Every structure is written in structure tokens, then in C-alpha cells.
Amino acid sequence: MPSPRWRKLLRDASLHKARTLLVILAVTVGMIAAGVLLDAWALVRTATLHIDTIDETLLAKVRGLPQVAAVRARRTLFGTVRASGGTIPAEIFSISDWNASDIGRLRSEQGVWPPRDGEIVVEHSSVEFSGIAPGQTVDVRGVDRAESLPVTGVARDVGLPPGWMEHLVYAFATPATLSRLGAPPGFGELQFVVRDESLDREAIRRIAYQVRALAEQEGHQVTAMDVPVPGQHPHAAQMDSLMMTQGAFALLTLLVCALLVVNLVTAMLAAQAREIAVMKTLGASARQIGAMYLVFALLLGAAASLPALPAAVAIARPYAALKADMLNFPLDGTSIPWWAFALQLAVGCCLPVAAAAIPVAAACRASVVLALSNPGIATQGGYLRRRLTLPGVGRPLQLSIGNAFRKRQRLLLTLLALAAGGAVYIGADNLRTGVRASVDRIFSAQHYDAVLRMNEARPASGLEGIAGGVEGVSAAEALPSGRASVRHADGLSGNRFALVGVAPQSRLMTPLIDEGRWLAAGDRDAIVVTRSLLKDEPSLHPDAEVALDVDGRATRWHVVGVTDAGAQSIAYVPASALAGSGGDAAAAAVVVAMAARDAAGQLDTVLRLRAALERAGMSVASSQLMGEVRRVYEDHLLMVVQFLGAMAWVMIAVGAIGLASTMSVAVLERTREVGVMRAIGADHRAIKTIIQVEGLVIACLAWLLSLPLSLPVSGLLGDAFGKVMFTVPVPAIPGTRSMLIWLLMLVVVSIIACAWPARRATRVPAAQALGYE
């Protein structure tokens, strides 16, 4: 049979069932949120040389290098696919060994594999948005030819960014099929992975130069070299940002749950101050009393963890699958490791104990004499309630307003729980505003409506003349381009980036400058870099003199400015600097401004443009409306913000439970007062109004507290987003819309949270209420 103190513990829990269940519910919600992120996280290196042609001899020699673990050859064809009534840019790959698993993870998911001559297999992430499925026949345009090819299967390549995000159709075909589309014979890219997985990017780059030297010794011409960040997916930045911020808010949610535990235990200890003194008088030590209440907190944590663990697993599976789909890899065969469950159980049980330790220690140190003279629930804030006088406000309402301040410590904890959720909600909304402002800023520099890319570079003046003469085109500018890489001090080159030629007096391209200046008339060797490129190549800072390899030529440039182009690593130079000996630069892209402002009208103009260029012998590889480009770009960024908004809702739910718990305790403490009010004639409506107004006062105070608290939260969100993505100008002051929505949400939360305590107060008979101890 349990000892008396443990029987007392069980009795205390049964006497306070409502608030105990509310705290268990809040901790369960917080544990589910944190567990989902942990379980999802638990579920969740290649260099490329571009060579003229690759043969088996070269592959064998590279494979024989001691630093190289695996090697393969690949050919990439850039073209378009006509599907679902529209033309979509496409990248079609051919690989030397379709079934090799030592580089990348390429596997069949449906239909034929590997692809056969005259057929294509579509990559998994491109299927849904393009409407292409096995059994269809699609029109594919390559370098200078078009073919109708049957789609015979679906495969997944985890090394590719999702096609639905990039708005690209990825496909796989044999070298013979690519030749039918105009691609050169054989393979043009050599990919390898290093044997030592601990090597950083610079070390891998040095190995890539050894491979390059070997290829050149064999008589091959190496045109470019790309070394990605080892072990990092193309969209890892979004996922890093998402997991980092969500993980921080999961910890904040657990902290809010800890505040609720402190609230509950503090109220329980205050109500039992005389009981604790009696136990001390009878010989109970502070250690025994403290252990009793800490065990109670431990049982709270265990009761919350047991349902939270399976609930977190049930939610984490589809959530992890969604994130995996964003990174374009499957979760088949993966399972949540045992340590994730152990960690969640440990946190769930220890969190309430740690939160209860402070009030329990204070109660155990209290003097027996003072505790025995304590009438029970002490009233704080009495001076404020006595002096509170609001002109034109009736006494019952003034009483309810004053009641909110009776327990200052409990009020503070409740306010922090609610304000934390509001601060995250407002911070996420501010981040959303900042992201949209960044997108506006980036695209405001592009005063054109569409871009058309050619299969072959053409003289810029001729391209502009033909495009500008099409009906519906108000302006056209050709954009000469090249590929460049920074020549470092050690003689090695960095990764390639796009070099775009722009006329300094351009009306269609006027990027906003963050540092330095834009291109000016008369500039010849000036270059403006994007902030993302500067992040990857710090030597390209303003006023720097840099050596670049531009399409195989050694050149020198002077960095004059830095602009923000989002995540794009590109640089702008005067168009004349890319001109050949004839004085006219060759361009493979033309941007146009159109008279039509609607999507249908712009699409009609693009079709006329394509037809005019085709008649002039200029084959168009792809065309894109900037409105569609902006939508895809914005979707990339807002994906992170939407998940942060979901975390804010979790915190708001926990805060609402905290308010309900606080009001439940407050009504229980004032049972006698309610009995007195009913005895002197107060009806149910008046009592409910007093309780509801008290809750509304707490909600309004939480709203006021959340506004300044949202400022550092917004700053931290913007800083975290900027470190893994790009700088976002988060507003310093919350928007009026988000503040009003949050206030309305608090009012609704307060009404719901106070409904049950108010109903309970009116259901206790007056005689029983007057006799309550």
C-alpha cells in the first residue's frame, strides 16, 4: 500500500484534474512539435569536368587515380519539351553507365529502364507539373532539330534539384537519341567522386586539377570545371534554413510548456503551504517533500510523452516525405533511430521536473511559522486593485480588471507564453513581408516581360532588330554572355559563374546597387557582382582587381559594385567588353518588354517572336515569361516562411492552453468570492462577464508585450534566413495587418479559454462555494 505522502500526491492530482490535464495537453503538443522535427531530421560529393569528348581510355586512367573513388561520363543537352499545350525548358542527360550506383542515386520508378534508342525517360520531380507521363509522345527540340519521342518510364535522380521548383523537365536518353536532337557524338562531361569523404571543397578542387591535367595529356580539351560543396544538395540552403528556424521554435515551444508547469506547481504549492508546514512539523524533511512534488512533475512529463511519441511519428513520416520530395530523394527503407525516441522521452520527462525545481525548492525552504499563518492563496497586487478606478466603468468590470493582477508571477508566466506565440507569428509575417520586398527589389531592376534563349549565339544587333520589329514588342535588348571563373593566387580557378553583358545605358536592365556603382558609359573592364557570388568568391569585393578566366581567356577586371540578385551567382559587365574583333557581341538571349500586360497577351506576343526569329534562321531554345519566373522564385523562398507560420500556430495553441489553465486556477482560488457575489444577487451573466473580461485583459496585455518582443524575433529570423539564403530586409516595425490579426486571434483565444472556467464558476452552489477552503 502506498505511503501517506504518495497517497496525498494522488489525491492532489485528482483534486486538480482540469488544470493537470491542461498542462499535460500543453506539454504533449510541445513534445509533438519538437518530436516531429527531430524524427523528420533523423529520417532526412561530385566534381564535374566539361571536356570536348570522352573515351574509355580516359575513363580508365581517371578511374586508376588513387584519390578517385568512382567516375562516369555524361552528356547534357539543353532543349525544350512541348507538353500540356506549352513549351517547357528541358535538360536531357545521357550517362555512360545507367546502372552504376557509386556516383549519385539514379533509379527507375516506373516503366522502362534504362532508356532505349528513340525514347526518353522523365525524371520523377518533373512529372506532375509538366503533365508528362509514360505512354505519351512529346515533341522534343534539341540544338537544331526536333523529334517526337515516346515517354517510356520515370526515374529519380537525387542529385538534381526538383524539376517542379526549377520549372524544368529533366529527362534521360541514350547518346543515339541525343544525336538525333543535334547533340555532338559521345560524352562531354566527366564526373568523379573522391575516395576521402572528409576533404573540403578546395582539396577536391586540387584533385580535379590533377584529373584535368591527365585529360589534357591525353589530348582532350577541358573547357570548364565545377566543384560543388561536398555533400550539399542544390536546395540544402532552404532545408538548412527551415530546420534551423523550426528547431529553434520547437525549443521555444518547450520553454513555453515549462512556464505552464511552473504555473501549475506554483499554484499547487501556494494552495498547500499550510499542508507542507504540517508535514514538516510531523518530521518530513525538505528532501522528502521536494521529491514528492518533483515526482508529480515527472509523472506529468511521462503522461505527456507517452501519447506524444506515436503522434510525432505519425506526423513526422509524411512531413519528412514532403521535405525529401523538396530535395528530390525518397525515404524508402529509412526508419527513425532508437536514440530519437530516447531523446524525446528524456526531454519529455525531465522538462517538467526542471521547470518545477525552482518553485519546489522555494516552498521547501519556507518557514514553518510563516506557512502556518498563511491563509492559503495569498493575494498580490492588492494596492493596484484598491487604487484602480476607471471613470465610466462599473464596479464589476473594475473588479475583473483588477483580478488579472492578483497573482503577478502567474500573470507574467501566462503573458510570456501567449506573447511568445504572438512574437513568432508576427516575426514570420514580417519575414514573409521581407521576402516579398526582396523579390520586388530584384525584379524591379528587370524592366522586361520575357526572355528568349537561342540555340546558337547570334550578332546582338541583328537579334535586337528582329525582336524589336515584332508587333507588340515595345523594346528589345540582346544580352551577350559568357562563363567565367576566378583565378586564385595559387593558380587554381574557382567554379564557373555566368557573365552577362549589359549596355550601361540599358532601359531594360537597371539593377539596384548595394555597394559601389553600376556600369557607366566608357567602362571597359568594369564588373558588378551579385551578393551571392561575392559570398562564394570573397575576393570579388568592391575596388578589387581580379583575374578571371573568361571562356578560356585570361582577363583582368575591376570590381565597381555589388548588387542583389537573390540566390543567383552572376556578374554584369559592359556588353562591349564581350564583343569580338568585329565590334558586335554575339548573344544567345534577348529580353523584350511588351505592350500587353496580361499573361494571355504576352504569350501571344512570345509566339509571334519565336516565329519571327525562326523565319530569320535563329532557332529559339526556350522562352520564359518573367511573371512565371517570379512565381517560381517566390515559391522557393516562401516555402520556408510557411513552415515557420505553422510553428507559430503550435506555440499559440500552447499559449491558449496556458491561459485556460491560468483562468481555471484563478476561478478555483476565488470560489468563496463567487459564492459571496451570488449570495448578494449577482447572476450567472455577471459572473461570466467578470471572468471573460479578466481573460480579455490578460489577452490585451499579451498583445502589447508581443509587439516589442516580435522585434528581436524578426531580426533573428531575418539574420538566419540571410546566412543560408540571402539578405532579407525584415521590417523593423510590425505591419498593421499582422498586429490586428494577432489581436483578433487573442480575443478569440481568450473567449474560448475562459468559457469552461466561467461555466464552472456558475455551476457551484452558493452554499458550497461559501464553505470552500
Concise synopsis of the structure shown:
The chain has 773 residues and is an alpha+beta fold. Helices cover 53% and strands 20% of the residues.
Q: How many β-strand runs?
A: 20
Tell the overall outline. elongated
Strand content: 15-25%
User: What number of structural domains do the residues give?
Assistant: 4
Structural class: alpha+beta
Summarize the amount of helix as a percent range: 40-55%
Note the total helix count. 23
Strand neighbour order, sheet with most strands: 2-3-8-5-7-6
Sheet with the most strands, sense and barrel status? 6 strands, mixed, barrel
Low-confidence stretches: 376-387
Which radius of gyration do the C-alpha atoms yield? 34 Å
What oligomeric state best describes the polypeptide chains here?
Answer: single chain
Average pLDDT figure = 78
Termini separation comes to: 28 Å
SSE map:
Elements: H1 4-15, H2 17-43, E1 47-54, H3 56-63, E2 68-83, E3 86-95, E4 106-111, E5 120-123, H4 127-130, E6 137-141, E7 146-157, H5 163-166, E8 169-172, H6 175-180, E9 187-194, H7 201-217, E10 222-226, H8 236-271, H9 273-281, H10 286-327, H11 338-365, H12 368-372, H13 382-387, H14 395-403, H15 408-444, E11 450-459, H16 460-468, E12 473-486, E13 497-502, E14 513-516, E15 526-530, H17 531-536, E16 545-550, E17 553-563, E18 570-574, E19 586-594, H18 599-615, E20 620-625, H19 626-669, H20 671-679, H21 684-724, H22 736-763, H23 766-770
Parallel strand pairs: 3-8, 5-7, 13-18, 15-17
Antiparallel strand pairs: 1-9, 1-10, 2-3, 2-6, 2-9, 4-7, 5-8, 6-7, 11-19, 11-20, 12-13, 12-16, 12-19, 14-17, 15-18, 16-17
Helix pairs in contact: 1-10, 2-8, 2-10, 2-11, 2-19, 8-10, 8-11, 8-15, 8-19, 8-21, 10-11, 14-21, 15-19, 15-21, 15-22, 19-22, 21-22
